[in-house]
Amino acid sequence: MAPTKITLQTNQETDHENMSDCKSIAGNATTRNIVDLLLVITIIVLLGVAAPIIRGDYCDIDECTSGNHSCPTKAHCINAIGSYTCECFHGYHGSQCLDVDECKLGIHTCDEHANCTNTMGSYKCTCHVG
């Protein structure tokens, strides 16, 4: 049996309108693929970080109870996973937890017939004589 010869004919004319539709569809598919890939990567990263915490595999060192923190003496140490924060006691402010002068700032509740005296972390009111 002799080999069969097959001839393919192609239309040399290009339909430019259909080509732009194809490019648009391909572009949208590529964008969708990239978004899907980023979503998968995000999920993997989140699972990699969150899974040990959820399972209880993560060992946090409590800097507050171990004394390995640098909070000022007028602040509470608040433990966080992998870190800690410092919160100033009432009447203190700033990174060094300095005394708030309520009298000077006018944020006291002393009567108009009383003197305001600042104290460390607070203030006191003393009535005028008479």
From TrEMBL:
Domain EGF-like: 60-98, 99-130
Gene Ontology terms for molecular function: calcium ion binding
Disulfide cysteine pairs (residue numbers): C88-C97
Bilayer-crossing regions: 34-54
Keywords: Disulfide bond, EGF-like domain, Membrane, Repeat, Signal, Transmembrane, Transmembrane helix
Pfam families, per database record: EGF_CA
Protein name, as recorded: Nidogen-2
Protein's organism: Desmophyllum pertusum
Lineage: Eukaryota, Metazoa, Cnidaria, Anthozoa, Hexacorallia
